[in-house]
Amino acid sequence: MVKKKLDNPKVYPKRFDPELLDSDAISVTKELNARGYDAYLVGGCVRDLLLGHKPKDFDVATNALPEQVKASFRRCRIIGRRFRLAHVVFGREKVIEVATYRKDPSASNDGSDAGDLLIRHDNVFGNAEEDALRRDFTINALYYDVKRQEVIDYVDGMPDLDTPVIRTIGFPGIRFQEDPVRMLRAVKFAARLDAGIAPEVYEAMVFFRDELARAAKPRLFEELLKLLRCGASQRAFYLLWDSGLLSVILPELMPYVEEQSVHDYRIWQRLAEIDKAATQGTLYDEAVLMNALFFDALVETLQVRVIVSKLSKSFLNRLLHDLSYQDVYVTVC
After folding, report:
1. CB contact at 8 A, 51 and 14
2. 57 is an active site residue
3. What is the pLDDT along the chain (333 residues), one digit of tens a residue?
4. Which end of the chain has less neighbouring CB within 10 Å, N or C?
5. Contact 172, 200 (CB under 8 A)
6. Which residue in the list 22, 104, 136, 275 is annotated as catalytic?
7. Please, what sign has the CA dihedral across residues 228, 175, 98, 28?
């Protein structure tokens, strides 16, 4: 079922535990409010707060333009070209990301890209409702008014968060053609939140999976790392395999995750170890994660007894130790 936008936003009174909130993010919203602008906590941080989790990052949405945000804070910089954002800096490295309300950029399309829905620019500013409607999933389009202590819901996302279920805002086929990486994000949220995926969303993922080939490779790699570090990579990779997404983004891995593969249990075992470590606060670096995925292919290629340089020996033994995987040993010629 594709949900239609609400005639009027639903407002839910909600007071969050102060221990879960970020004082710097709160100060950003208050400063913008004091200058006459709207400012809400938005997106994943609101979702996580509603689930009782302390968010890793806090984002702010506002009707202030990036230049107006920059003028409101002593330490603020504007970044991005495709999607211009303001970064308000606290301390040495801490950043609160502030985004101006956007709206669907296709509304301003001159028609030259008719039939091509891929979003290549996203700097068309709008209002709060338009900003909500252009977001990916209903559970990620909730706004929190710090001053009033209210959750504002333009897309009926609260019931989906309660269920929980992953549902796109608008028609999933269109949303996935606009930004194919959204399919990987659907998998990540389903795995991380132990949520279902709405049938029409899952069907669109299967049908439009080849669109992932059009996505920028750095974004695909970034989302792949997020899947591996989400604490539920085992379920995430099962969903990738089951939906056919894996065959598009990592076709080399398919022989090692097929149901009858002799390597099947090994890769799932390593993903389980990665998840166990993530839940305990240990996040492996990119090299370890990539080798965890492709270790079987490496071993098979080198015929199990791996003869490598001293540097490679050290690296592979670290991998084996980190992932508690001792079936293969490394020697040096």
Report:
1. no
2. yes
3. 666 566 689 999 999 999 999 999 999 999 999 999 999 999 999 999 999 999 999 999 999 999 999 999 999 999 987 788 999 999 988 999 999 999 876 654 444 444 566 655 556 889 999 999 999 999 999 999 999 999 999 999 999 999 999 999 999 999 999 999 999 999 999 999 999 999 999 999 999 999 999 999 999 999 999 999 999 999 999 999 999 999 999 998 888 887 656 556 788 889 999 999 999 999 999 999 998 898 887 777 765 444 545 555 666 566 656 555 544 444 443
4. C
5. yes
6. 136
7. negative
Q: Which pTM does this prediction carry? A: 0.83
In the 3-class helix/strand/coil scheme, how is the chain assigned residue by residue?
CCCCCCCCCEEEECCCCHHHCCHHHHHHHHHHHHCCCCEEEECHHHHHHHCCCCCCCCEEEECCCHHHHHHHCCCEEEECCCCCEEEEEECCCEEEEEEECECCHHHHCCCCCCCCCCCCCCCCECCHHHHHHCCCEHHHCEEEECCCCEEEECCCHHHHHHCCEECECCCHHHHHHHCCCHHHHHHHHHHHCCCEECHHHHHHHHHCHHHHHHCCHHHHHHHHHHHHHCCCHHHHHHHHHHHCHHHHHCHHHHHHCCCCCCCHHHHHHHHHHHHHHHHCCCCCCHHHHHHHHHHHHHHHHCCCCEEECHHHHHHHHHHHHHCCCCCCCEEEC
Active site residue 285: no
**Annotated catalytic residue 116:** no
Written as one letter, the residue type at 248 is V
Tell me which of 24, 38, 59, 275 is the catalytic residue: 59
Q: Tell me the one-letter amino acid at 145.
A: D
Contact assessment for residue 219 and residue 82, using Cβ atoms and an 8 Å cutoff:
no
